Amino acid sequence: MRQVTEQPQEPASPQDVADTPQTPVTTDAETVQETAAPVAEPPADEAGEQPQEEPQENGEPSQAGAAGPRPRPVPGSPRPTPRPAPAVPAPPANPAAASGTGEAAAEVGHTTNVDREAAAAFGRVDENGTVWVRRADGEHEVGAYPDATPEEAIAYYVRKFEEVVAQVDLFEQRLRSTELGGKDIVAGVSALRTALAETRAVGDLDHLAARVEALATVADEARAAADRARAAHREELRAGRLRIVEEAEQIAAQDPEKVQWRASGERLRTLFEEWKAAQREGRLDKRSEDDLWKRFSHARSAFDKMRRHHFAALGEQRNSVRSDKEKLVAEAEALSTSTDWRGTTNAYRALMDRWKAAGRLGRKDDDALWDRFRAAQDVFFAARTAANEAVDEEFKENLVVKEQLLAEAEALLPIKDLNAAKKALGSIQDRWEAAGKVPRADLGRVEGRLRAVETAVRDAEQARWSRTNPETQARAGGLAGQLESAIRELEADVEKARAAGDTRALARAEEALRARRAWLDAAQATLRDAR
Known about the structure:
mainly alpha; 15 helices; elongated
């Protein structure tokens, strides 16, 4: 039975890895961003970097490739004939393109089963039983497999190579299926590099290293895309927070005299719920989160302070209004039993003006005080109406007398004899005063009819005075004498013009004569009216 320094284990073949159910492969950049976008970021450390999570699944390097104590060479073991080393495949010309399109990703992520014969060609066993692997920079010692043939030793280290290839294949599939976040990507690439550096294996290690570096480039692009998606997501979150903050600040900056307090308060509560929902969606960096929250909290506090101040001032104002209106109610109730109808009516008018100037309370309180004020008024005016009705009943007989006097006065019109009309009107006025008061509803009507007769008598008397005025008679007499003298002169001018045969002078003299005679007739008529 052979003794080995470390017990080899059969690694999972690439075909077994390929048969394992995997998430459907996709290289769409949008899918990478969507998967990489975090829901909530853990707090950053002092350097500003997010703490890295432990790699999972393939994150731990395989321990199967760790070489144990170097075995002693097997004496007499045949030395295999080294095969020509195949050319080491060069890495893709543009590995970064692997994260951009499906074709490029497929080129970088293409995996095949390990060709054990081709892998074994990269190794040899020397005469001491030491296994060596050929790389681009020369041969490197791998280890020894004592008490085994060179073929078995090479096969053992080829299986180690297969284990690392399986890790690379699995990470490549996971990377292409966008299952990994930014931290998992970094950890996975680091684990592959560590596994490749520490594994003692035989195979085309240079080509495998090139694949790992190509995957690292793709991983860097995927991580960058995830970072961009995370940054875009954070900017969306910040814009949403900023909208909430700015609207809250606009509400807090309103004019206290124009604020709709109920609607504005309800809107602030809604904005607070939106803020909490935005926090559940994701958090910003600590500084931005704190700055926006301070602005939002300050706006809410300022609005609350403004509202408390407004309603405190409103409460003081309402207390003052309540006191003033209670005094008005007390005065109105004290006047309700007064029988000074005219004076108390004027007093109630003054109370009503003061009531309107006092301001308003709440609807309920204001209505209650108004009901008391109005009830006191109603008591007074009801008593006044009853008293007036009683008086009007007594004055109905006086109305009949005054109706008869009106008929007698109106019969004087039109005035033909002014002196007789004045004498009759004086008698009517004396009897009018003696008749007494009439009902209030008829007072204006009967007084207006009598006043019309009195106005007609005054107008007639004024017209007579204008005609008999001595000054008017004197002016009319002097004018008539002047006109008569002028007419005589014009008659002489007419005769002279007619005798001379001067037609033009005759026409002017006759026209002037006709005008003076017309003026004389008017003056003589005025004198006759005055006499």
